[in-house]
Amino acid sequence: MIRSAVCGVGTALPRKIMTNKDFESFIDTSDAWIVQRTGIRQRHIASEDETTASLGEKAARRALEDANLTPDDIDLIILATATPNNTFPATAVEVQYRLGMHHGFAFDIQAVCSGFVYGLTTADLHIRGGLAKRVLVIGSETFSRILDWSDRTTCVLFGDGAGAVVLEAIEGEGTIADRGILASSLRSDGSQKEKLYVDGGPSTTGTVGQLRMQGREVFKHAVGMITDVVEDVLNQTGVAAEELDWFVPHQANKRIIDASAKKLGIAEEKVVVTVDLHGNTSAASVPLALAHAVSQDRIKRGDLVLLEAMGGGFTWGATLLRW
Ligand code: ACO
Q: Is the peptide bond before 249 cis (omega within 30 degrees of 0)?
């Protein structure tokens, strides 16, 4: 059977780094509070010339280079973002143009922080359905542009960046010994919208709006949503949590990551954590963390890797793959 395997990864981070200390001059907060409540120490913030499309392009080029491929080899680009360059067209199409691609097709996926996991799953279905052989899946965000910089309960949490992978069709045996995506689980529930949303949009206010979050409420639901989809992919494949080599969670809060790993029975040394370096980069957080672990030679060929994310909507999802 056809499997979708990762054959390249790449990242792009804005030049400017903002530390927790930098917030102390304009809001009532402290490095100690931010580190203790979230694990975040710094985040990258996009300058005027850095956009979701430019960061996405850079991450995509690096993923192609890592895969030893060129844009000519790609059939489809899926870009996950909640902060597109324009309301339309899709930022994926702009990245396609920036890469010099005049063939294939490209579209955006909007599932906020779960966007990359939704994107991977959608790419996998296109590959297994025969519509594409190689797909660039990108998570790219400039959340700094939708933050209320006077709201200390949200502005300290987020950062900008992009991560990308190239997924390629390979032949598998149909067992969990195969390389590539082995199982995915996606969920959403629109009834909790007011807990995490942006208070603007083209069809309502005619403005871009700003992020609003009831952090404590989101926190309360997070671990349950994460374990729900993780247990689903483990059940689908018969893999036990102890057999996982790596757990690459959405990087929103170190306390949520620790509590989820503990509940799932995943050992601390198998958990990839980059929230200290990047903050919450929404759809970019999982591919940034994945690429970070790959660059450190931690994730190796044949390893079982579990990705998960949850975010606004609510949306949540998990993917189990063999590297
Ligand atoms: N600095 C100092 N004090 C602060 C700050 C700050 N930056 N922010 C809030 N506080 C205060 C609050 O005002 C409150 O004060 P009070 O007790 O006098 O009212 C106190 O700190 C505690 O606030 P809580 O909200 O209870 O703090 P909590 O421990 O819940 O941490 C946090 C807040 C970090 C936001 C946490 O709730 C969280 O991480 N929630 C989940 C966020 C998340 O996972 N989002 C994921 C999806 S993101 C997406 O999809 C876009």
A: no
| Model confidence pLDDT, tens digit, residues 22-53 | 999 999 999 999 999 999 999 999 999 999 99
Give per-residue pLDDT as tens, 161-196: 999 999 999 999 999 999 999 999 999 999 999 999
Cα angle at 206 between 202 and 208, to 5 degrees? 75
Pocket perturbation via mutation, ligand 1, pick of 148, 153, 223 by most ligand atoms within 8 A of CB: 153
Given a contact cutoff of 8 angstroms between Cβ atoms, the answer to whether 128 and 143 are in contact is: no
Q: DSSP string covering 15-80, please?
A: SEEEEGGGGGGTSS--HHHHHHHH---EEEE--TT--HHHHHHHHHHHHHHHTT--GGG-SEEEEE
Residue 197 has a CB neighbour count (10 Å cut-off) of 17
Q: Is the CB of 156 under 6 A from ligand 1?
A: yes
Taking the C-alpha atoms of residue 123 and residue 114, their distance in angstroms, rounded to an integer, is 14
Predicted model pTM: 0.97
Would you say how long the chain is, in residues?
323
Tokens of 231: 């247990």
219 lines ligand 1 (CB under 6 A): yes
Residue range 254-292, pLDDT digits in tens? 999 999 999 999 999 999 999 999 999 999 999 999 999
- State the Cα angle at 148 between 13 and 24, rounded to 5°: 75
Distance in angstroms (rounded) separating the CA atoms of residues 253 and 267 = 18
Confidence (pLDDT) at 302: 97
User: Which domains are delineated in the chain?
Assistant: 2-171 (3.40.47.10), 180-322 (3.40.47.10)
Structure tokens at 164: 């990308």
CA 216 to ligand 1 centroid distance, Å: 6
Q: How far apart are CA 255 and CA 219, in angstroms?
A: 9
Alpha helical stretches, state H, 105-202: 115-128
Mean of pLDDT over the chain: 98
